[in-house]
Amino acid sequence: MRLRNKPGAKDTILNHPELILTDGSDWKGKWQERFGNDQPIHIEVGSGKGQFIVEMAKAHPDVNYIGIEMQTNAIISILEKQLEEQLPNLQLLLVDGADLTDYFADSEVDQVYLNFSDPWPKTRHEKRRLTYKTFLKTYETIAKPEAELHFKTDNQSLFEYSLASVTWYGMTIKKVWLNLHESNFEGNIMTEYEEKFSQKGQPIYRLEAIFNGKKLN
């Protein structure tokens, strides 16, 4: 979905370096210092307009959250929410999710969230899917051994692909939901897309998978 340009977005971003970074490489391996505590670090790759990451930060003040988004018009919406909330456990990164090893040290991240990622349905675009093996390798590199990946989507084909991809990669499937909103799952925080799709009666798919330590290749 194309987002409308917001006048002054770039200036707003540049004026708030305490909340949002366009290059986080200076904090690689030092994110807990930036937060000023030793709480676990959870990241969301592709945060969109930020409802999920903001509400997670509000609900879990004992966790540090980093929302990662490459579209300026999307992340400015998160920044606006954060300017209102001033959550001490939320930071934003305006960077490409493919380059996470430039911004996080090995084993620095405790959990990774992927919510309603672009399905890239054409076979020739498989490598762009955020659950493709090269992305999984990137997440594993920056994640602690036995860290978890949590994934949600309304797209059945992408969900089936992702189940296969994490399995082939050697991750352990912890739990799977084929219709999240009809389950007994507690504490679900919805994204903007999730609200939209669930209101239309579409099932929401979810999985939790565990990285099984560092790979040698």
Automatic annotation (TrEMBL):
Substrate binds at K122, D154, T191, E192, Y193, E194. One of its GO terms (molecular function) is tRNA (guanine(46)-N7)-methyltransferase activity. Pathway: tRNA modification; N(7)-methylguanine-tRNA biosynthesis. It catalyses: guanosine(46) in tRNA + S-adenosyl-L-methionine = N(7)-methylguanosine(46) in tRNA + S-adenosyl-L-homocysteine. Its EC number is 2.1.1.33. S-adenosyl-L-methionine binds at E44, E69, D96, D118. The keyword Methyltransferase applies. Keywords: Methyltransferase, S-adenosyl-L-methionine, Transferase, tRNA processing. Residues 124-129 are annotated as: Interaction with RNA. InterPro entries: SAM-dependent_MTases_sf, tRNA_(Gua-N-7)_MeTrfase_Trmb, tRNA_methyltr_TrmB_bact. Belongs to the class I-like SAM-binding methyltransferase superfamily. TrmB family. Catalyzes the formation of N(7)-methylguanine at position 46 (m7G46) in tRNA. NCBIfam families: PRK00121.2-2, tRNA (guanosine(46)-N7)-methyltransferase TrmB. HAMAP family: tRNA_methyltr_TrmB. PANTHER family: 3-DEOXY-D-MANNO-OCTULOSONIC-ACID TRANSFERASE/TRNA GUANINE-N 7 - -METHYLTRANSFERASE, PENTACOTRIPEPTIDE-REPEAT REGION OF PRORP DOMAIN-CONTAINING PROTEIN. This is tRNA (guanine-N(7)-)-methyltransferase. It comes from Candidatus Vagococcus giribetii. The lineage of its organism: Bacteria, Bacillati, Bacillota, Bacilli, Lactobacillales.
